[in-house]
Amino acid sequence: MAAGRKRVGVLISGRGSNMVSLAEAALASDYPAQIALVLSNIPDVAGLDRARGFGIATATVDHRAFGKDREAFERAMDEVLRVNQIDLVVLAGFMRILTPWFVTRWEGRMINIHPSLLPLFKGTHTHRQALEAGVAEHGCSVHFVVPELDAGPVILQAKVPVLPGDDEDKLAQRVLAEEHKLYPAALAEVASGRARLEGGVVIRG
C-alpha cells in the first residue's frame, strides 16, 4: 500500500454493493485511501465474503448480543476500529442508527451515502417519496455524519432524471448506479483532505 493512504473502516449490514465500489476504487495506486476493514453488525452477510475476496480484513460485532444497550454495542465497534488503526469510517448500508456518543467520537471522520438529494427525502423509502412528490430529478448524496439523521453537511451529490413509467425499483437501480461512482469520489475528497468538516460546514481546498 502506498504511504500516506488513509485507513478506512466500512460498516455494513448486508450485501455491501457500495463497499465493493470503494474496494475497487482503492485498487488504484493513486487512490488516497485503503479499505483496511469491513465490519458488519450481522454475522455471515454476503458483504463480508465479498470483502474477503478483495483480501480485506473483516470483523463482526453482533448488535443483538448487546440487547437494547446501543452505546455498549458501539463501544465494542469502536474498539475494533481502534485496534485496526482506522482513520475514517464509511457507512455503506449500515442499518443501525448511531448514538451521539459514537457520532461525536468520529466527527469529521465518518461519512454516509443517502439515496436522495439531501435535504430532500430524509429517512427511508426515498424513491417512493420522490415519486409521490412528483420531482423531475432524484439522486444521491454523500455527507458527513452528525447526530441528527441524514442532516450532515453534503460533500458530493449526483442527480438522475425521474422518467415517465418509473417505479421504485427502476428509480432505485438508476440511483444505485450513481452511488457506486459517487461514493469513491467523495471518499477520495475526504481522504485527501480536499473536503473536511469545520464548524459544521464542508471546507474545500
Automatic annotation (TrEMBL):
(6R)-10-formyltetrahydrofolate binds at R70, M95, R96, I97, L98, N112. N(1)-(5-phospho-beta-D-ribosyl)glycinamide binds at G16, S17, N18. Keywords: Purine biosynthesis, Transferase. Its EC number is 2.1.2.2. It holds the Pfam family Formyl_trans_N. One of its GO terms (biological process) is 'de novo' IMP biosynthetic process. SUPFAM superfamilies: Formyltransferase. Residues 6-187 form the Formyl transferase N-terminal domain. The record marks D150 as: Raises pKa of active site His. CDD domains: FMT_core_GART. Gene3D superfamilies: Formyl transferase, N-terminal domain (3.40.50.170). Catalyzes the transfer of a formyl group from 10-formyltetrahydrofolate to 5-phospho-ribosyl-glycinamide (GAR), producing 5-phospho-ribosyl-N-formylglycinamide (FGAR) and tetrahydrofolate. This is Phosphoribosylglycinamide formyltransferase. It comes from Bosea spartocytisi.
